[in-house]
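From the shared-data thread, chain only:
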Amino acid sequence: MGAAASTFGGGGAGELGKGGAQNQVAGASVGGALGSDGGSAGRSGSAGSSSAGSSSAGNSSAGNSSGGVANGGATSTGGSSAGADGSTCEASAGLVLGPDGCVPVAPPRLIAPLSTSRVTSHSPTLRWLLAPGTDGVHVQMCRTRACTLPVLEFEAPGDHIQLPTKFKPGVYFWRAFGRSAGVTGLLPSATWQFTVGHHSAKVDTSWGTTFDVNGDGYADALIGAPAFGAAQSQANPGHARVFMGSAAGLSSSPAVTLSGPGGRNQFGVVSSAGDVNGDGFADAIIGARAVDNYHGAAFVYLGGANGLSTTPITTIAAPSGGSFGWSVASAGDLNSDGYADVVVGAPYVSKGGVSVQYGGRAYVYFGGPSGLDTATPITLAGSTDFGGVFGQNVGSAGDVDGDGRADLLVSGQDGIPVGTSAYTEAGRAYLFLGAASPFGAAASAELHAPSEQTPLTFGGAGDFNADGYADLVLGALGETTELLGSATGFGTAGSLSQPFPLLPNTTASYSYRVVAAGDLDGDGYDEIVTSYDSIYTYSGGARGAVSPAASFTPPGESATIYGYHVIPSGDINGDGFDDLVIGAPFADNFTGRAYVYFGSAAGLAASPALILLGTDGPGGNFG
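Structure, as tokens:
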């Protein structure tokens, strides 16, 4: 049997997780020793007795509320519901009396934390949308998606609750059943998952996405091979491959190989899309910027219990050309509706007027129960309409102001006017704050590196000082700038490194990349990783990431000319430390390879745990 159901109404906070302690919730003991497999928690009382303390909506009283568990599902309140004419419905079957007779109590729709995201608090707030005719929920918290042995169950009125229980680091799954007038339905919501980190912040929010396409709690890896280096005579359309995570590490062979639509389309610019349809599984978005003579396109593939689908659920055509799909990313949940949104960059959208006519655009597409709405995207632009490539980099900015809504960052370069007919290029990034629908197209802040070098890159959000506000890192050829979030937006900015001297035969626009890499050493602070001729790691701390950086060079052929791709992956092997995949897409005569490094208490291991080799031949650019 699972943990006893309780109505939250007070009590101190204990811990749940591997070996979790007891928790006193509304006078009912919920907890006990929980094994590594998420074994059952202890129960208070027996079937037929209710928890003490404040009651849930419906005023169920002692003696008629069991809240027990049967085969991993919620056991409905005993008794029956009666109509004015004396007709009754069997409450144990999850039925209540409706206008046309007995009807099942409908489940809620989960809203937050968005599935596959990471929460900032060990006692996160859960949010849901009640179904019509219901007044509360019965929630199950589990360590496996099947949820056969919940580690915690409770009943809650309304549409949200902050858990008084402290959860230990790891991946947790949750689902909810509707309640109406004391009757608990038997139909569950979708099962969602979130990751609890090693530090609990006062700011209670969530952001990011772990690419876990089959929902088993292990991060998977999506690696592109867009064939940028393929000869014009080659018909390589580009590929993307999914490698599955497990307790043993990352698989050495892809579980799924996706191919472009045909021709030399540079399909393979990849990212997790988050959960765009609310089914609880991570989805994927893949750009193909050379489709239709470089107008571009993007493709969305849904995750599921059997992994990533091989057929796109959505094909997004370029609204205005411009190498649409040059960059793709999950945007988080910008409008707080419980569905992940995505952003796609098209840096070469033309505006005209001067000798170089590019301005660049980025497009936001909102998620929904059927996936993305491609009919009404939000169009984003930089501050100038010429000489720029706005949209070279796109991605989630996490939640920089801690308001519970995802924020968005788009970068590239802008043409800064010089006189009336010329311009100079400067790296720029634009922050767009999330808001309740509709999400606006106006930038909240314009950011740049101190030297204003171009291009300006970034790589997702992290929490380098573990205060619960998302932080960002910007990079421009060795110059690394850290921006710390706060309740009013960005507070402190710090320079971690100065521009590198150019190496011989180095192409600056490809060579320097920065990412928020996750918590590689399990100390509760996220790290910054940058790449150029080597990999540089800046450790997080109470005041943010610090210099000097530790560095290492992956084995094999040097990737100095074009640098390395650094892919934050989450926890591939479930050991509690975030891991990294480092791509070298120009190694081996542009065939490409990828190195998998596992995190540990000492940080990244000195040697890769796995080396994946490209299989598309020279010009495939795997990694």
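The chain is about 0% helix and 40% strand.
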